[in-house]
Amino acid sequence: MGDKIVSAKDWSLKKIISEAWEKVDGFKGVFWGAIFLLLAIVIGMMVVRVLVIFLSALVLPGFLTIGLDFATMLVFMVLLQGFVAGRLMISISRAKGKSFTVSQLFEYLQFKLLMKLLLLMIVYFASVIVLVGIVGLCTVYPFQHSMTAMVIFQIFYFLTSIVFGMAMFLAFAQVVDQGKPVFSSYWHGFRLVLANFFKMVVAYLFTIAVVIAGALLLLVGLVWALPYIELMCAMIYRELCCPGESASVSIEVEENKPK
After folding, report:
1. What average pLDDT does the segment 43-72 reach?
2. Is residue 83 scored above 90 in pLDDT?
3. pLDDT tens across 173-208, in order?
């Protein structure tokens, strides 16, 4: 049997928006702590990479320096996926009503998982490039001077970014949270997005509106907006990929409401 496809009638986006609002206050501090720690790690990686390039240039031929630079960059990109996985699991833990800490950022630096995430990134970018390329050849290239073709391509590109972006997010979360295989996770995520396409578009537009509203408040609103959006996405994952874990979260929300 394949993975269950949760349809749009099985979950409520309105309830997720409301629940994320209630839960974000206890989540912002850990979210930003993880973000700043991740930023420090990225800066550290950049410094190490510059040092590696500088020192290798002193003792190695040019082509070996370029090769070492590429290898260093690839290793850092793979390691970064592990840190991103940890940051995502902080949000998923909060969405599921489980305990969450900044230390989760370091809990997913496992070789097997990192290789699966690297494969997932390759599959994702390859599928997007192929699909966008095919549509571009069918619309823009034959009708280069047609405004209609350009508009069709831009609309398609916008919708594609939603479908593949959310499918990638759901697949990434399934691989990290549930340990599922890469290809089945990506395919399952893709099918879930198509089955809930209208709600996904609404959720996407809503997150854009939240970011704009946060930015208009002298950027201070982003302190609240960004963790809110991440928590909302984690709750969408919970509803679509872990429907059996929603009840405990609802109970926790009810118990924490002021009497």
Report:
1. 83
2. yes
3. 999 999 999 999 999 999 999 999 999 999 999 999
Distant-in-sequence, close-in-space partners of 244: CB < 8 Å, separation ≥ 6:
none
Q: Is 171 in contact with 120 (CB distance < 8 Å)? A: yes
Q: Please answer whether residues 120 and 186 qualify as being in contact, where contact means their C-beta atoms are separated by less than 8 angstroms.
A: yes
pLDDT of residue 130: 83
Q: Which residue has the tokens 């280069």?
A: 144
Query: Can you tell me which residue has the tokens 């990434």?
Result: 172
